[in-house]
Structures are given as C-alpha cells and as structure tokens.
Amino acid sequence: xxxxxxxxxxxxxxxxxxxxxxxxxxxxxxxxxxxxxxxxxxxxxxxxxxxxxxxxxxxxxxxxxxxxxxxxxxxxxxxxxxxxxxxxxxxxxxxxxxxxxxxxxxxxxxxxxxxxxxxxxxxxxxxxxxxxxxxxxxxxxxxxxxxxxxxxxxxxxxxxxxxxxxxxxxxxxxxxxxxxxxxxxxxxxxxxxxxxxxxxxxxxxxxxxxxxxxxxxxxxxxxxxxxxxxxxxxxxxxxxxxxxxxxxxxxxxxx
Length: 255
Fold this sequence. Notes:
Largest sheet: 4 strands, mixed
Distance between the termini: 37 Å
Number of helices: 11
C-alpha cells in the first residue's frame, strides 16, 4: 500500500499502524513542500501561491499531492501558503525536519493535507521529527542497497558507515547477535529500521519472539564489532525488500 492517501485512510480505519504510515509517507516522492524548508535548488519546481507565507513559522503545511494543495487553496486561498515546490522526495522533506537550519529548527508541527477529510490528514509534533529523519536516512540507505544489487554501488559503503540507526536483534539472555546460515557460513542479521525488524519477528512463534531484544547502533559502533567476529557476512532486512547480503570483506572495510 504505497499511496499516501490510501495508507492514511487505512490508519483511520485501524487497518494500518503508525509504522506503516510513516514508511509510506517517507518513501513518497510527490510531496508539495514550502520552499523555505528545502536546502536544494528547486527553481524548476516552484509553485507560487503568494509572495510570502502567512502561516506561523512554527507550522509546516505539506501536501501529498496537488489535489491536497488545491483543496486547501479552494478553502483558504493561496496567501497562507506562499511559495511551494513539487514534486519533492519524502526523504528530503522528513530529513529536513531534523536540520540545523534556522528555518527548520523553528518548526514545531507538521500538518499533512490540511483541509482534507480527517481520514487523509496526518499530524506530527516536534518530538517525532528526529525519528522520522532517521527513517528518511534508512530509506536512502535501502535505495542504495537496491541500486547496488542492480550493479550501481555508488557511495553505498559511506552510507552504511555513517548510518546511525542500525537495529540488531539480540538474545535477551546473553545479548548474542542473531545469526542465520547462508551459503558461505553464518551471517549476522541487521535491520535498517524498526518496521523492518518487525517484518521478521512477526513471523516467529510468540515464545521465540519473546526471547529477542533489540539494540540500536551507529555504523561507527557496529562495524568494528562485526569485523572482529567470525561471521561470513551480514544479511540486511531479511523478510523485506530490498534485502542485501554484505560479505565479511565489506564488513571489515567498513570498520
């Protein structure tokens, strides 16, 4: 369910979780966003509703599509919005929420599809911004895995090393890493985000899932540990797409 309006309706009907909603919103690449939130050149994407926004600087009104923006303008006029850019990737929008830029640090609330039906509206307070920005970084990394699997390695190694949200399932009893046996030997299991971890644990019998805990590490903490361990590699995001197998040679390179 990759459509933002569909996932928001599903959440309103209790058919989707907060994790489901955030995954779809961050992966969505058709956002309409106030231009002052963006640090990249969007001159070719501008939509001018008014010369200057009239909404408080602490509030960011964003829309999943042109329909949402037009619905707001029909109800309130274009003056509150100012200048927007579209389409904008969700990783850029949600990544900006944790930016140190003054325009972004002032924001205390994000309102999605203001003026839409309540079932297609979403609200985020500032307390959730850091987690949503981490999810945005996870999606960037996951897309790099997909590109690498297709032959375009790019800056994958640096993205893996700099990522700060590695999630590891560990045994509650001894804090040992969870491993699976693949061709070549034992591979440690890693996840890029909490919802990816749940995709695996939800398939386990309750008595097995109860024995697992989770640790969150930065790449700088994780890879030196793995480089010293006798693993044949790591499998990242099993039970999800894209999954990626990193051989031991890569893990040592990242240390």
